[in-house]
Amino acid sequence: MMKVAIGGMVHESNTFNVRRTELEAFKTGFGLIASDKDILRHFQNTGTVLGGFIASASEYGFDLVPTFYAQAGLDTGTVSQEAFDYLEKKLLDSISSASADGVLLHLHGAMVTEGYDDPEAEVLKKTRQIVGDKVPIVLVHDLHANISESWLKHSDVIIGYKTSPHIDEFERGVEGGKVISRILRGHVKPSMAIRKPPILIGGGLMTVVDQPLAMVKPPLYRLVSLARRMEQEKGVVNVTVAGGFGHADVPRAGMGIVVTTNNDQRLAEEKASELEKLAWSLRGGFLPDQVLVSPEAAMKEALAVKEGPVILADEGDNAAGGGPADGTGILSELRNANWPDAALIIRDPQAAREASLAGIGMELSLTVGGKSDDLHGSPVEVKGTVKMLSDGTYLDPRQKTITRMGVTAVIRSGETDLITTSHMVEQAEPAPFLSVAIDPSRKKIIAVKSAHAFRHAYEKFAKLILEVDTPGITSPNVSWFNYRKVKRPIYPLDPM
Fold this sequence. Notes:
Number of strands: 20
Largest sheet: 9 strands, mixed
Structural class: alpha/beta
Number of helices: 14
Helix content: 25-40%
Strand order of the largest sheet: 10-20-11-19-12-18-17-14-13
CATH class of the largest domain: Alpha Beta
Low-confidence stretches: none
Number of domains: 2
Distance between the termini: 53 Å
């Protein structure tokens, strides 16, 4: 039976995050390093790309050779070269030892290291050198990947997520397994075409969701919808539209389109050009003023709504995109509103520890948030009662993996429940709130430090969603940042 090696390396690097990502970030918290059979034990029956790889083996009839996999948690600064070199060697050595007939890789696509602006290209190039030209390499990547032309030189098929929030990771992993099995059986001979329309998109402007509160579909939704229709046409293997990651200051940053056909380069080029033309015509829809509201206006509107919950998305401090998760833009407005019926999560180990030492039922005064830097607001004085303490451990319902927030305290001030945690937590699901006995569907206001990943879960019960123009390094407004490496001209940084 055919042998397919699986592995990968995942990190989304926000180059405006001054906190460098070290090797320890891959080992602790939300990080993970796994090799050999530990990969199977960790990812089997999960809704992840690796879970999809594993499931596809039995469905499409090949043997798995798990190699090496590493992902960082919510540490999103540029990866230290020492950490990358260590992880890359582990992955490449494992692939070399696998002696496989094919290679399935999961790479995020927006990693940046101290030495490489395009480390995914380095991994693909060195993998190709190891396995040779006859062994197919299929890559599955995030929708926020900054795809480069170099990827096509060293891989056979490139498959990107089609949802944001990312709810199709498992499906894309299965698709990767299906495609590589078809290549190995001689049913597909891939031809790829790439287009890089000069559009730089902020993280909060890439929602691809098919739910009621997204009545006006954003441009990326329309592009991905066309990509899906193209995939139904004869001879088309995969059509990927990646929004890119606008918070990585690298030459390859920006939107990427890759079309793969079955041995039909002309068809691939035609479809890629069609998508590129549509993307350019829709570029005005990627401007932040189409969706953002100021913190003051957001709070005023949220309080005026008769029935909640109202979801306030903290765009400048997206925990999954590089924010420190201690921004106080919305917290300050809650204080100014005299602590209304609301709930939010702030990473503040000091405040969580002080509340833990005080104990449940005790009143205390403390400063919360704004301690990481001066870019995300100032600390806010909070007076309240400790309502609950927790070790911060819960099960992520989407990926079916354990999440650890560390020492966690719920502090009630007025009608506001402030959850202080020791570690950053991705707030895409209600799970962190539910883990401390707060039901977001029963609160008037819920603030989430998430750009768009929250929509899949929260749109099921939210009455209103407001994307708040808070300060910080994940702001969708790319004109706020000083780019030095991004290829110019590019929209909207330059008049085009």
